[in-house]
Specification:
Number of strands: 4
Number of helices: 7
Strand content: 5-15%
Length: about 220
């Protein structure tokens, strides 16, 4: 499992403790401290008392408050990252609110990275799918198709509006945002760092660097 705090892979070694019971269920906590970041991880779960099988319910992570999705990378602008992280945090509790934040995050990302003419999110997606590689364009386009923008026009015209969502829509929007973050922010940084290393190596060998070639082209 991954620690929900630091996202480091750790061995699951949970302690269990009784909490309380009622006429229907016995309640327990499971907990452990992450050996990497030393922070506590606490789950709450229950077991039915009235069923013959005594079904154990799926453990619910109560600390930290997260659904296990990684935070937005440090390269993402803070205003966009803040919306993404909040959308991920409330995905289970309120898919409608999560999707509203994600749509706002998507619009901000498109306007930040590409030369998009501001308008409705529907029109901005239509512009974006021609600018990105097809696999990303198709993924973005699926947001408006899955979300039925023609039926719920506020999703396009007022991106932060809380309106009904389709099954899986909020989660898919977060998935697409992670794809965009990697393409728009992470990969360019990696390429820039590799280019800088190669420039240093070329300079040490007395050869022309990327930077010097760029300057010649500009002239």
């Amino acid at each position: 499992m991954k620690c929900p705090h630091c996202q480091v892979e750790i061995h699951e070694y949970m302690y269990q403790k009784d909490v309380t019971s009622d006429n229907y269920e016995n309640w327990f906590t499971r907990y452990q401290n992450c050996p990497s970041c030393k922070k506590s991880i606490i789950y709450l779960f229950s077991k039915d008392k009235i069923e013959i099988t005594k079904t154990m319910k799926e453990p619910y992570l109560i600390y930290p408050r997260t659904n296990g999705r990684a935070l937005a990378p440090a390269e993402v602008p803070s205003s966009i990252a803040e919306d993404f992280n909040e959308a991920a945090l409330i995905l289970t509790d309120s898919p409608k609110a999560s999707a509203a934040l994600s749509r706002r995050c998507l619009q901000a990302t498109l306007r930040e990275i590409k030369s998009i003419h501001p308008g409705s999110l529907d029109s901005e997606i239509n512009q974006a799918i021609r600018l990105f590689p097809s696999y990303i364009g198709d993924a973005i386009d699926a947001i408006r198709k899955m979300g039925k923008f023609t039926t719920y026009s506020k999703k396009s015209e007022s991106v932060g509006e809380i309106v009904p969502v389709e099954l899986g829509e909020a989660e898919w929007t977060l998935e697409v945002l992670e794809l965009l973050f990697d393409f728009c922010y992470i990969q360019p940084k990696i390429l820039k760092e590799k280019k800088a290393k190669l420039d240093t190596k070329l300079a040490n060998m007395g050869k022309s660097t990327f930077e010097s070639n760029d300057e010649i082209e500009v002239e």
